[in-house]
Amino acid sequence: AQKITQTQPGMFVQEKEAVTLDCTYDTSDQSYGLFWYKQPSSGEMIFLIYQGSYDEQNATEGRYSLNFQKARKSANLVISASQLGDSAMYFCAMREGQGGTASKLTFGTGTRLQVTL
Amino acid sequence: NAGVTQTPKFRVLKTGQSMTLLCAQDMNHEYMYWYRQDPGMGLRLIHYSVGEGTTAKGEVPDGYNVSRLKKQNFLLGLESAAPSQTSVYFCASSYPGFGVSNQPQHFGDGTRLSIL
Predict the structure, then answer these.
(1) What would the pLDDT profile of B42-96 be if each residue is shown by its tens digit?
(2) When comparing pLDDT for A22 and B41, which is higher?
(3) Which of A42, A45, A104 sits opposite B107 (nearest CB)?
(4) Measured between beta carbons, which residues in chain B are less than 8 angstroms from residue A110?
(5) Residues A97-114: what's their mean pLDDT?
(6) Residue B64 is inside which H or E element, if any?
(7) B39 in contact with A at a CB cutoff of 8 Å?
(8) Cα–Cα distance for residue pair A43/A40, rounded to 1 Å
(9) Contact state of B45 with A91 under an 8 Å Cβ cutoff
(10) How large is the average pLDDT for residues A43-55?
(11) Contacts of residue A98 in chain B, CB cutoff 8 Å?
């Protein structure tokens, strides 16, 4: 089974509108972390936001927020007031484990977001 | 403010040739990783290292070798390149972080490798 599922290969949003990018995950661990990365057309991977499994509040970083629903195992990224520069590929990733070598990230297949005028 | 630097940025190889990709980080991170990115498949972990002199296999290690002789450097080698290894390769580094740790991985800009 996929550990990270991003069901939206592509999304369109108008400038200044909000958009939600979906991410569901599968783990039996109690301790895990969820990350979102942005990959613009230039190719680099940019860390956006993090949510820990024990965090009671949804994470926020500027225009980015994470809608964390633990029971549903979902960690959706919300981008408010979209800008043209938000056009990029977005990846959801998960880190599991209690220790040792468990710093590995498992990535989803990504969602390509296109912001239009 | 270099962060994670990958060399080269682009390379074209012929089947059977060998090459080494270099990753260097200046953030004093313990952990380093090599990923490959293929269309429609996201990033997949090839090998990783939790410290100088130690390496471990990731999800797709076949056909690759790695070495971490210095803390700041992580080398990825292709001994006999195959067309299936055509991909974009990313190096990343991080502080130790387990499960709920909020330490992100910091990525280099990638190496685009084509094997003919």
Answers:
(1) 899 999 998 999 999 999 999 999 999 999 999 999 999 999 999 999 999 998 7
(2) A22
(3) A45
(4) 42
(5) 80
(6) strand B64-67
(7) no
(8) 6
(9) no
(10) 93
(11) 98-99
